[in-house]
Design brief:
11 helices, 7-stranded parallel beta sheet, 3-stranded mixed beta sheet, Rossmann fold, 346 residues, alpha/beta
Length: 346
């Protein structure tokens, strides 16, 4: 049995990846490492919590000693690192938390992997990052693996820093590591502070739909299951020291996304002819440092590892909306948890 750890495995991408790996690899023990912040919840994994090859460890990656104990307990052979503070708005409000988790947390894991190497053990390290480290594009061009870093928010700066630490440990200590930089994910179990689940949940509850600025900021959208498959391939076949960009080939403005969701839900919720949830749209003041356009060139991972996205955006969006409509209780439980946490923090 190989013992594979996944950090942040109770979060959005993490829980989808844990489920994918547990179901696909019966000869792997999958160890979920998570400290269950507002964005991580074991409700995301109830369908596999009793699987014989699934284990959960409550741990904060900023606690180096606790991480060491878990690595020794499970004799980790590989780690896929997703744990991160990831919401740009929250990074503007509290950048220190992002530095602590995204930079110090990554550093701690790298230190343990280095110690493993020096003791004669081996642990492959897959660092999952974001296209936001590259900054903002104009109307032309794409992010490639050679694009210079130009982060514009505390969040993207913290992720850029963690990427640099991974490369430094590859070059200085010879650890076996790969990096992936992905575009915007969407799909089931995403916390409703991100655009797509926020719009869906606001429509369900009859609240206004806020759109920053003019709504013409462009993002490339990647269905989370496509991302899980890409991570799987890179973790197993990626070349040590290499970076792979993962994109969905779906460039859309925020306004396009919102209008499409409204049109789909007009039909699914049987709104009368002439009525539309688009009436809930409310343009609000743009956030500081809001990047205009992200776009991924995923040629490298396609040519070298044979991966490309399978989910067309409309198909993935329909599936996502259906999931949220069928799991309104999940939305209620998740959001009530964060409201309690926010109240305790203030």
């Amino acid at each position: 049995m190989k013992n594979i750890a996944i950090t942040g495995g109770a979060g959005f991408i993490g829980s989808n990846l844990v489920r994918y790996m547990v179901n696909k690899y019966s000869d792997y023990n999958i160890i979920n490492l998570d400290c269950l912040t507002y964005a991580g919840n074991l409700l995301n994994l109830v369908d596999i919590e009793n699987a014989p090859n699934y284990f959960f460890e409550f741990v904060d990656i900023t606690d180096l000693a606790a991480l060491r104990r878990i690595f020794e307990k499970h004799q980790i052979d590989g780690i896929i690192h997703l744990a991160a503070e990831s919401h740009v708005d929250r990074s503007i409000q509290n950048p220190a938390k992002f530095v602590k988790t995204n930079v110090i947390g990554t550093f701690n894991i790298l230190e343990i992997v280095r110690e493993y190497n020096e003791s004669g053990k081996h642990c492959r390290f897959h660092h999952v990052s974001t296209d936001e480290v590259y900054g903002s594009l104009n109307d032309k061009g794409y992010f490639t693996e050679r694009t210079c870093y130009s982060p514009k928010s505390p969040y993207s700066a913290s992720k850029a820093s963690s990427d640099h630490f991974v490369r430094a440990y590859i070059n200085t200590y010879g650890i076996d590591a790969v990096i992936t930089n992905c575009s915007n994910n969407y799909g089931p179990f995403q916390f409703p502070e991100k655009l797509i689940p926020l719009v869906v949940s606001n429509i369900i509850s009859g609240k206004n739909i806020p759109i920053y600025g003019d709504g013409l900021n462009v993002r490339d959208w990647l269905y989370v299951i496509d991302h899980c498959e890409a991570i799987d391939i890179v973790f197993h076949k990626g070349v040590t020291g290499e970076t792979y960009n993962i994109g969905g080939n779906n460039e859309l403005t925020n306004l396009d996304i919102v209008n499409t969701i409204c049109s789909i839900m007009d039909i699914k919720l049987n709104l009368p002819v002439g009525k539309s949830f688009k009436n809930l749209i409310e343009f609000v003041k743009d956030r500081p440092g809001h990047d205009r356009r992200y776009a991924i060139d995923a040629t490298k991972i396609k040519n070298e590892l044979g991966w490309e996205p399978r989910w067309k955006f409309k198909m993935g969006l329909e599936a996502t909306i259906d999931w949220y409509l069928s799991n309104k209780d999940w939305i209620e439980k998740i959001t009530s948890t964060i409201y309690k946490q926010d109240s305790n923090e203030t």
